[in-house]
Amino acid sequence: MATVIEVTEVDDPRVDDFRDLATADRRPDRPGGRGLVIAEGVVVVERLLASPYPVRSLLGVRRRLDALAEPLAAVDVPAHVAEADVMARVVGFHLNRGVLAVADRAPVPDLDVLLARSKRVAVLEGIGDHENLGSLFRNAAALGVDAILLGPGSSDPLYRRSVRVSMGHVLRVPFAPVESMSAVFEALTAHGYRTAALTPRPNAVPLREAELDDDKVAVLLGSEGPGLTEEALAGADTTVRIPMADGVDSLNVATSAAVAFHAMNGAA
């Protein structure tokens, strides 16, 4: 059972994990920080508590901690309760969601083990926007994608904004970084995946004809603007496009991903 601890002083060292989250060089989830995972809001905190990420502590107003009474009864972590103004001064801004939790990172899955137990995989190349990453992971969780590979140029999906936008589903979908696209293709080929690169190019196969619901398929997604690199396009078994109305040349990458993930479930 969680231990509820009253916090009345802003400088209480027991809440240092939550301190000054608005200041970039103090953020524990930023490069150079302590690598902590930060969850915001009752729903996301509950998903963190149910995830493989080792929770360190919580900080929230009493009403929000009361809403988490059931999941907190099953964990042995400190739950710090504070008035809203004290919490705001610790965090560095007023948090409408009223509760935060921090956790250490879970071990990164072994790539071969991850691919061996998966069938539907998304490969991200150059996805640097944290909101797009969060949306992608939420879509992946909703539409049955088993794993995500983070190729070159992709940002950390455990950045606070990504966790928030994903509604905590980034904590549910397993992912692994891969250093190069050549390593991505080597691993996918070794495990029998067919690879499909998503692109708006007119010579690509229309989505309805791409048969993405085959056994063991990996869809490649590139950044908005430049899209996938020539290396990624050339290395894929096929290129696939989402047909669009005249005058529209592309979709947001998270939206494109959702359409492709839906097709991977046989619903194109």
General description of the model:
- Helix content is 29%, strand content 20%.
- It is α/β, with parallel strands linked by helices.
- It has 2 domains: 3-103, 2-Layer Sandwich (60s Ribosomal Protein L30, Chain: A), CATH 3.30.1330.30; 111-264, SPOUT methyltransferase, trefoil knot domain (Alpha/beta knot), CATH 3.40.1280.10.
- Helix 6 (130-142) runs parallel beside helix 10 (253-264).
- The radius of gyration is 20 Å and the shape is elongated.
- The termini are far apart.
Strands, helices and their partners?
Layout: E1 3-6, E2 37-40, H1 42-49, E3 55-60, H2 62-67, H3 69-72, E4 78-81, H4 84-91, E5 99-103, H5 111-116, E6 120-125, H6 130-142, E7 147-150, H7 160-165, E8 175-177, H8 181-190, E9 194-198, E10 205-206, E11 217-222, H9 230-235, E12 238-241, H10 253-264
Helix pairs in contact: 6-10
